[in-house]
Amino acid sequence: MAQEFDLFVIGGGSGGVRCARISAQHGAKVGIAEGRFWGGTCVNVGCVPKKIMVSAAEYGLWAEDSAAFGWEMTKQGHDWSKLAAARDAEVARLNGIYGRLLEGAGVTRFEGYAKFVDAHTVEVGGETIKAKNILIATGGNAVRPEIPGAELGYISDDLFTLKEMPKRVVVVGSGFIALEYASLLKGLGAEVTLMYRQALPLRGFDQDIRQAMADALQEQFIGIHASESPLSLEKTSTGLLLKGDNGSHLAADAVFFATGRKPATAGLNLEAAGVKLGARGEVLVDDNHATSQKHIYALGDVVDRVNLTPMATATGHALADTLFGHKPRKASYENVPSAVFTSPPVASIGLTEEEAAKRGPVNIYLTKFNTMRHTISKRVGRKTLMKLVVDAETDKVLGAHFMGEDAPEMMQGVAVAIIAGATKAHFDQTIGIHPTAAEEFVTLRTLTRRTEKTV
Questions:
Q1: Measuring CA to CA, which residue among 247, 248, 223, 251 is closest to residue 235?
Q2: Whether 63 contacts 73, CB under 8 Å
Q3: Are the C-beta atoms of residues 402 and 350 closer than 8 Å to each other?
Q4: Tens of pLDDT along 112-139?
Q5: DSSP letter for each residue of 47-80
C-alpha cells in the first residue's frame, strides 16, 4: 500500500526543509525525500563551507597586517587539511540539525531520489507515495562549459573535496561564486587568474561596484582576463593549459568553472506529472509558486528567480502558512539583500543606479575611502565604496550598495530601513556611530551626481 501525505516535498535543502517543517507544525502529514545530502547546496557545498574558507583566508591577511600595529608575528603557512577537517565537522553538525528539526516536527524522511509516477504519485527507492500536494525544491547544479577538455576542470562543488590546495588556479566566470573562489584561494596562498566574458565582473550589480571590484582584484594581484571566453582545456606535462578566444594560454594546476548553474530537474520525470518547464529548464510557477498543476508547487533555485538560500527559506515558510496555516501570504522578491564574500566583500539591496534611472531621475550619493585599519596597514585592494540611490522626486532611498570590510553585516540593518521605506532625510537624521565605516551611510550629504531618467 502506498503511503499517503498531505504534502510531499522533493528536496532536502533549505527551502524544502522549511516548508516541510512548518507544514507539519501546522498539523499536516508531511513526507520529504533527499537523495544526496540534507541541507542542500548551501550547507554542504555552498554558503557554509565557503564562508569558513573565506574566514580562513581573512585570518592570513590579519596576520600580515598585524606588523603595522606593532605585533611581531611570523606567518608559517596554511594547513589545508586542518581547515578541511574543521569545515567538514561543521557541515556534518548542520546535517544532523536538519535531520533533527524534521524529526522533531514529525516529518517522515525518505533517503533517496524521488520521481513522479503521475500528478499525485511519486516513487522513492521503489516505494510508492501519494500526496494531495507536492513541492519540488530540488535546487540547482553547477554546469561546465561546452568546450573540449571541460571534464578536466572542477565545478564549484569540488573545492570542498580537494585534499590539498592547488598552487596555480584559473577561475572561469565573473559571478559571485567565481569571485569568492578567486579571493579565498588567493588569500590562502594560491596564484590566481580570472577569465570571464564580460568587460566587468558581477553582472547585475551596480556599475560602480563592478568597477571597484575589478580594480580591487587587480590591486591584489589576481590576474584578470576580461572579455574572454575559454576555448579548450588540456593536460600538459606540468598540469593543465586553458586556452581563451583572445589568444590566452593559461597554465594551471586546477581550473574551476563557475560559469553558471541550471535547475535540477533531471530524473524527476516531470512529464508524467504534467509539470511544464521554461526555456532555461526552470520549473514554471505563478505568483503562488504553483506549477502548471495547481497542487504541485516549486520554489528555490529550481524556479530560477532569486537564487539565494534565505529567499528559498522565506518562500517555503510562506507556502506552508498558505497551505496549512490558515494565513495565506507571499514572500516578496523585491528588495532582497545579497552579499558577495570576496576580499573585500560586497553587499547590496534594492535598485542599481541603472535600474532606478529607468523609472525616473535619481540622486546619487557615493564615497570611496580607506578605512582606519588600512590607513595604518597600507594594504592595497581594500578600499571601501558606499553608495545610495535616491529617488529625486520622493527622496526615497531605492538602493544601497557597499564594497568593503563587514559590508554584509552592515547591509542587513540598512535593508530593514529600505524595506520600511526610509528616505534620504531619515538617513540624514540618524546619528552615526563613530568611528566606523557604517556611519558614512548617514553622513553622505554631498550629492555626487543626478542621473536623469533613461529610456
A1: 251
A2: yes
A3: no
A4: 999 999 999 999 999 999 999 999 999 9
A5: HHHHHHHHHHHHHHHHHHHGGGGT---------H
Helix (H) or strand (E) holding 86: helix 80-105
Rounded to whole angstroms, the Cα distance separating 390 from 401 reads 12
User: C-alpha grid cell for residue 334?
Assistant: 523585491
Cell 528588495 sits on residue: 335
312 neighbors 15 (Cβ within 8 angstroms)? yes
Residue entry with cell 525544491: 137
Contacts of 300 (CB under 8 A, 6+ apart): 11, 13, 14, 15, 16, 137, 138, 139, 307, 311, 312, 315, 316
The per-residue pLDDT for range 385-440, each reduced to its tens digit, is 999 999 999 999 999 999 999 999 999 999 999 999 999 999 999 999 999 999 99
Cα(429)–Cα(123) distance, integer angstroms: 59
What is the secondary structure of 403-421 as a DSSP string? ESTTHHHHHHHHHHHHHTT
Strand partners, 26: none
Assign 3-class secondary structure to 315-328.
HHHHHHHHHHCCCC
Contact predicate 142/226, CB 8 Å: no
Q: Which amino acid is at 350?
A: G
Residue 389: closest CA among 441, 312, 455: 441
Residue 354, C-alpha cell as written in the block: 541603472
CA atoms within 13 A on the CB side of 412: 4
Whole-angstrom CA distances from 64 to 58, 68, 110, 213 are 10, 8, 49, 22
pLDDT for residue 76:
86
**Closest to 195 in 3D by CA, of 220, 165, 169, 160:** 169
Query: Which residue matches cell numbers 514572500?
Result: 331
Identify the residue whose cell numbers are 498539523.
27
CA–CA dist 124, 113 (Å, integer): 6
Q: How far apart are CA 398 and CA 404, in angstroms?
A: 20
pTM of the model: 0.95
* Separation CA 248–CA 218 (nearest Å): 17
pLDDT in tens, 168-184: 999 999 999 999 999 99
What does the alpha-carbon distance between residue 261 and residue 5 come to, in Å, rounded to a whole number?
Answer: 32
Distance, CA of 306 to CA of 289 (rounded, Å)? 13
**In this predicted structure, what is the pLDDT of residue 455?**
81
What is the pLDDT confidence band of residue 85, given thresholds at 50, 70 and 90? very high
Nearest to 109 by CA among 182, 24, 197, 180: 24
DSSP state of 190: -
The distance of Cα 99 from the centroid of its chain, to the nearest Å, equals: 23
**Cell numbers found for residue 366:** 557615493
Using the predicted structure, report yes or no on whether residue 189 has a pLDDT greater than 90: yes
Picking from 229, 249, 231, 225, the residue whose alpha carbon sits closest to that of residue 147 is 231
Q: Hey, which residues are catalytic here?
A: 434
